[in-house]
Amino acid sequence: MLLLMALFAGALITLQAGINSQLGVLLKNSLMATVVAFALSILVSGLALISFTSQWPNWSDVRAVPWYLWFGGVISATGVGLFYFLIPKMGVGAMMSYALTGQLVLAVLASHFGWFGLPQVSLNQAKLIGLSAMIAGLVLLNR
To answer: What is the residue range of the signal peptide feature (predicted)?
Structure first.
């Protein structure tokens, strides 16, 4: 079930990127499309938070969060904005293939070094072969 949910999440990312990049084209402003997407995300996430959260963090839990973890939204806004800007120029297939490759390379490095407090999973030959195959696939997909 988790695998299906992960595949569905990936499909939703491609769908929203394509839809919102077209919104940016029609509005002639990819940043406006980014703001619209995040405003609606705040609304939907806020309603879900209020509806489904039974236990809220206390103030000491909030203060214990490392400062840099509060800046994920800046990274999200930058990444999403770049998607909406680049898709009309590159096409959704090319953009998603490059983005996925970037995600996988960073994921392997983050796992190997245990960045962001993630469990450490060593880089091995199989992972290097898999990444190489992804990069080869990227080249073939974008010919």
So the answer is: none
pTM: 0.80
CA distance linking residue 139 with residue 43, whole number of Å = 39
CA distance 22 to 55: 39
Q: What is the pLDDT of residue 141?
A: 85
Q: Quick one: 82 and 140 in the same domain?
A: no
User: Same domain, yes or no, for 72 and 141?
Assistant: no
Amino acid letter for position 35: V
Q: Which helix (H) or strand (E) holds 9?
A: helix 2-27
Contact present, 52 and 40 (Cβ < 8 Å): no
Under a CB-based contact definition with an 8 Å cutoff, are residues 8 and 47 in contact?
no
Segments forming the whole domain that contains residue 139: 92-143
Instruction: Pick the closest to residue 96 from 10, 6, 5 (CA basis).
Output: 10
